[in-house]
Structure formats: C-alpha cells, structure tokens
Design goal:
With 724 residues, the chain is α+β, with helices and mostly antiparallel strands. α7 packs antiparallel against α21 and α25 packs across α26. The radius of gyration is 34 Å and the shape is elongated.
C-alpha cells in the first residue's frame, strides 16, 4: 500500500499538466450540470417526513383550504378609525387591490377587509342573519333571554330599515355592518346611536377589526383603527411558486396608499421569502468572507511558499461537492447549507497538511522524493480519518428531520471530494514547483512554536486535564436533555430586520402571532350534531388566553346570534342551526368576491364533507404552543367520542362507515402544527445521533488499528470537549 501511495505522489507531480486539464474539465462539467441548478428548500418537506402523519394531514388540509397566508395589517394614524377605512377613496383603494390580487393570483383566496364586509353585508341585507336571529328567539328556552333576543331583533330590523342606501361605503350602512346594537336605542321610531367612543364592533367581525392594545395589553378602545386581511396562497406550492405568488402580491400591494392608514404586509410567505433570499445571497456572502479570512490567516501564519494554494483546493472541492449534491437530488436548506463552512474548514485542513508536510520533507528532511514521501505518510491517515467521519456523518440518516438526513449526506460526500481535491491539487502543484525550483528554506510560525511548547508540557499535567475533560463530558450528557431547540422560523432570520418588526407589530396590534387550522371531516359537516360540536369546541377554545380569535362558518353564525345578556356567565351560548350555517355558506358562494371566504372555510357548499376551524394564537414558544395544541386536541377528541356514543345508528354521519370508525374526524394542520412537528422530530433522537456516530466511528477504528485502546485513544478528543 505504501508503494501505491508513493506512485500516486510521483505521477501527480509528473503529470501536472494532465491533472490541471482534468481538474478544469471536471469543474466546468459539474458546474454546467450541477451548480447552476442549485435550489433552496424552505418548505415543509425539508423538516417533516413526507410519510409522517403531520405531513400527510397538512397536505390534505392545504389541498382543501390553501397554504401559507400573507397577512395585511391596516393601522390607523392620527384620529383615523375603522369607518374611515371603508369610505371614499380608501374604500376604492381596498376594492382596487382586492380586484387586482384576485386576477393576479387566481389560485389564491383573497380576503381583504373589503371582502369581509361584503360578506357581512350579504348576510345582513339578504336575510341569513335576520333569519338566524328570529330562529334563535324561537329556540331560546329562558324567558328573560327570549325577551332580550326579541328586543334585539326588532332593533336590528329598525336599524337596517332606517338606511336608505344599503351599499358598502354609505356611512349609515357602514355603521350597521360594523357595529352591533350595544348602546343603540329607539326614540319614537328614530334610531339613536351611542357616542362614537362607545360603539362596539360586531363580534362576528372582530377577527377582521381586532382591538388595538397598549403596552399593558389593554384595549385602547372599542372603536379602533386596526383591520386585518389575508391572502391564502395556493396549497402545497413549491418554493418557486410560493415566491412567485408572494412577489406578484407585493407588486400590487406596494402601489396601495390609504389616507390615515399604514398598511403592513407580513405573514409566513414574507419571512420564508426572506429566509430564501438569505440562503441565496447571505450565505454566499458569508462564504466569500470566510475565504477572505482564511486567506488573511494563511498569509500571516502559514510561513511557506505559495501559502494560498490550499484556498484553490477548497474552492474547487466545494464547487464539486455542491454540484454532486444537486445531481443526486439534494437541495440546500437552512441545515444543509450550514455544512459548507464545515467542508471549507475540513478542505483547508487536508490541503494544509499535505502542503506543510511537503515543505518539511524538502527543507527539514532533505528527502530526495518529497512528494512521494508526503503522500505515502500523510494520505493513509487522512483516508482513515475521512472514513471515520463518513460513518459518523451517515449516523444522521436516522434523524426524523429530512434536512438533517440530507446534512449527513452532504458532509459524507463533501468530505470525500475535499480529501481527493486536497491531495491532488497541492501534490500536483507542489510537485512541478519543487521539480523546477526546489525550496531551500522555511520559516517557523507562531503556531508551530506554540505546538512545540504544548507538546513539551510535563506529563503531570495530563491527569488533571483528563479529569476536567471527563467532568465536562459527564456534565454534558446529564444536561443534554435540557438543551433548547430553536425551531421557530421567525427566529431563523435577522431579528433586527423589517420582517421581524412587522411581525411584532401584528402581534402588538392584534394579539395574535400564528394560526392553527383544524380540519373537521364527516359525511355532512353541516349536520346539527357536528355544528353543535364545532360550536362548543370553538367557544371553549376562545375562552383561553392563548386563543385570540377564530374563524369558521359555524363561529360566524354563532357570533351573529350571540346577544349580550342571553348567556349566563360561563354558560354555553346558543349554537346556530344547520340552516343558519348553510345560509351563510350560500351567501358567500353567491358573490364572486366572497367565494374565497367559502373556499377557505368549507370544501363544497353543496355537499360539505370538510370544514376549517381557524384559531388565531397569541405569541408563545413552540413548547408552550405544543402544550396548548395537545390540550385542544384532547378536548376535541373527547367531544368526538361523546358525539359518536350518542349518535343514532341510522344517522347520515354513520352512512358507509365501518364498524368502530369515527363518524367525525378532526385533524390539526397549519404552520403552528408543522412547527410543533418539527420540534418533536428534532427532539426525538437527538442524543441517539451522537451516540450512534461515536459507535460507528469506534467500530471502524478498532478494525483499522486492530486495538481497542488505540481506538479509544483516538476518540478521546471528540466527545470530551464538545458535549457540554
């Protein structure tokens, strides 16, 4: 084997022209077919197993109800209030951007405040709301509550009848649409409104017009200047499709201006786009910066001729590695791209070892064949080290996170490529150099002096160092389970960026920072038993501090008929009926403008088998959010179990079901659920990855050295300083 490596060294030096030509040809070919096709992945396939239940459920959810949501936040400035947003030029501007967004994004669901108010107008003007209110009076069992409902229904009819022009934009009709009956009275047939600062936004519209809160979390006032809209992009879109849709939306939104209001555009597509931009631009910048720093370090510390030669080897090796990854189908992600600095460091190390040893063989040992001597002595241990590293890297393949599995493949392939290039490039270049003009002197660097000094320390120092390292290792193992994992995508981007500022503003002004969708499926999700179950679940969920608001057809109609004073404190408000929910769905479907609302909340209005309950969640860590999601899921499962046990055998909900099959299913989905799934996957076998990597490396070293003590000695520097 030694003779083989000597021959390799000799031939690389002699055939340097052929080697250089081969390097150029291979590099150009790999760049042409590989590097130019590099793609960056930030979708759920990067951090969730495609065959995991969370991923499968989320795909199904997005197929029915769309994917990521761009959020539009309208914030009042000065004395402006919500009514000012839906009058005059502001209303015209809202209508314009709604129409243009709908045309530009045909597969998206565009729901601006204009859309929401159009839907509200359809419910109130065309009768679904009035029919639901009158029906609620007849279903009310408490005498006092029935009286309150009757009075409220008459007042609603009077307020509606008092407006001659029932069109969005008319101040009188806007008042009817926006504000409930709180504070309104009748005096001789004339409607008397309360003072402007006592008007109360309709409960069914508080998702669109939430309260502004101050620094203490208290509402600034019931009449406010905050409105929220959303653009639900195509479900299960690729990153390119998501970026294209986001850019198209931003191109339109950037042209919008509102008198007295500032519009903030945020949401997951925005910060995913920023992550993508960072991957494509920021990491390239960091890579160039790393090479510059290494060049400076080599120039100042590496006291040899052609001291920047290792950088050439690294540059070629990284290009090869990235191109090969593309060819085998691995995209760069937040995790895999972080392997590039590791590969750069390893490549520099390989090249420097070869380069330095050649200089030593020439100047210090005066060897007649310095290249052959270098390769025969240095290449075998480098190969052994690389094989050990490959086994450790491949241990990452047991991770439950796809991008971590890809990270292991990237390192395994990259380290092999960089070893080959790290040997070939310096050996060929230095071979011809030493043949034409042999090195006659070599300076001693400060690093070499330090290494000599450390190597000369007395053996008595070894014992305390071993004890200290052992303590650190044991301590690291003991506290490993307490290590926090940052899996919130918002924390992956620059915290001083405008994107994060916008997200914080959304949280401050609306109280919510994320959404969680619940996909409810049944033979008929408008069946009264299912409506009652969704209603009870939604009411209890909204009573939690962590749930800011919700949106669903059931919830909308429940809030329409929820009249103050008719529900005892802590009691369950009256649920809407099947007819109420169906009427609301039909109203949404009747106007092309409001069809996106129907599409976002129910799969098929004429034969509804799936609906969405969307919960807006307050700011929280993923650990806290995971606890909330578990509690909500347990509550929903209990309600489904109760419904199943009480359901008649001939119910339509049981039609076509196998014995023991649940008539109703509820599946969590949405970005919050995906983030929790990522957190669980990251935590699942984190320690096992480390232990398996050490075990595989140890087994190989035992085989390689044919000695357990020597193998263990080689592993000592790995776990001791790194575990804490």
């Amino acid at each position: 084997m030694e003779q083989f490596w000597r021959n390799v060294g000799v031939q690389l030096g002699k055939q340097w022209k052929a080697v250089a030509a081969a390097l150029v040809v291979i590099t150009v070919a790999l760049v042409a077919v590989g590097a130019t096709r590099i793609e960056f992945a930030t979708g759920q396939d990067s951090y969730l197993n495609p065959d995991s239940q969370i991923a499968i459920d989320n795909v199904a959810f997005q197929d029915d109800f769309g994917g990521e949501t761009i959020i539009l936040l309208f914030s009042a400035e000065g004395d402006a209030t919500v009514p000012d947003l839906i009058e005059g030029d502001n209303l015209a501007e809202l209508q314009r951007i709604t129409d243009e967004l709908t045309v530009a994004l045909p597969e998206a669901r565009v729901v601006t405040p204009y859309t929401s108010l159009t839907f509200s107008s359809a419910i109130i003007a065309d009768g679904p709301a009035q029919g639901a209110l009158i029906g609620a009076v007849g279903r009310e069992t408490d005498e006092e509550a029935r009286g309150i409902r009757s009075t409220d229904a008459v007042l609603s009819l009077s307020r509606r009848g008092a407006v001659e022009t029932q069109e969005l934009g008319d101040p009188g009709w806007n008042e009817v649409l926006l504000f409930d009956n709180t504070g309104f009275t009748q005096d001789g047939g004339k409607i008397v409104p309360p003072p402007a600062d006592q008007l109360t936004i309709r409960e069914s519209l508080r998702g669109t017009f939430p309260n502004i809160v101050d620094d203490g979390g208290e509402p600034v006032g019931p009449i406010n200047g905050t409105a929220v809209g959303g653009i639900v992009l195509k479900g299960n879109a690729t990153l390119d499709e998501l970026t294209e849709s986001t850019d198209a939306a931003l191109a339109i939104l950037d042209t919008a201006t509102f008198d007295g209001f500032e519009m903030t555009v945020t949401g997951s597509p925005i910060y995913l786009a920023e992550i993508n931009d960072y991957l494509q631009g920021g990491m390239l910048t960091l890579g160039v910066a790393a090479l510059v720093v290494m060049a400076v370090v080599l120039a100042l510390i590496f006291k040899v001729r052609w001291r920047l030669l290792p950088l050439l080897a690294v540059l070629i090796g990284v290009v090869w590695a990235c191109s090969l990854l593309v060819l085998i189908g691995i995209d760069l992600s937040l995790v895999t791209i972080s392997g590039l600095p590791i590969l750069i460091g390893l490549g520099i190390d390989f090249a420097i070892q070869i380069h330095n040893r050649v200089e030593e063989e020439v100047v210090l040992d005066k060897d007649e064949h310095p290249i052959a001597e270098t390769v025969s002595n240095v290449a075998p241990p480098l190969v052994a080290a690389v094989v050990t590293g490959i086994l450790a890297f491949l241990a990452l393949r047991i991770s439950k996170v796809p991008m971590i599995r890809d990270f292991g493949v990237l390192l395994a392939i990259g380290v092999v490529v960089l070893l080959v290039v790290g040997i070939v490039v310096p050996v060929a270049a230095l071979g011809i150099r030493e043949y034409t003009k042999r090195t006659d002197e070599r300076g001693e660097s400060a690093v070499e002096k330090l290494v000599v000094k450390l190597g000369g320390l007395p053996t008595s120092v070894g014992v305390p160092m071993i004890v200290l390292a052992t303590v650190l290792f044991v301590g690291g193992v003991l506290v490993e389970g307490r290590t926090k994992i940052q899996s919130d995508p918002i924390k992956w981007i620059d915290q001083s960026s405008q994107t994060v500022t916008d997200i914080d503003r959304l949280n401050t002004e609306t109280g919510f920072a994320a959404t969680r969708g619940v996909l409810v499926t049944a033979n008929n999700v408008f069946d009264q038993e299912v409506v009652d179950m969704i209603h009870a679940f939604t009411v209890e969920a909204e009573r939690r501090d962590e749930v800011v608001a919700s949106s669903s057809l059931v919830g909308t109609m429940a809030k329409v008929i929820n009249i103050p004073g008719t529900t005892p404190e802590g009691g369950m408000p009256l649920a809407p009926t099947t007819d109420d929910v169906q009427a609301a769905a039909d109203a949404a479907l009747a106007d092309p403008l409001t069809v996106p609302i129907a599409n976002a909340l129910v799969d098929d209005v004429t034969a509804p088998t799936a609906v969405q309950v969307n919960l807006r969640l307050a700011q929280a860590s993923l650990e806290e959010r995971a606890e909330l999601v578990d509690e909500l899921a347990a509550d929903l499962d209990a309600r489904i179990a109760t419904l199943s046990s009480e359901l008649d055998a001939d119910s339509i909900l049981r039609d076509g079901l196998d014995e023991g099959q649940d008539p109703v299913k509820a599946t969590p989905a949405g970005l919050a659920t995906v983030g929790i799934g990522l957190l669980e996957n990251l935590s699942a076998n984190r320690a096992n990855l480390t232990y398996l990597a050490l075990a595989l490396a140890g087994v190989f070293l035992v085989i390689r050295f044919r000695s357990l003590p020597r193998a263990l000695l080689a592993l000592v520097p790995v776990p001791l300083p790194s575990c804490p």
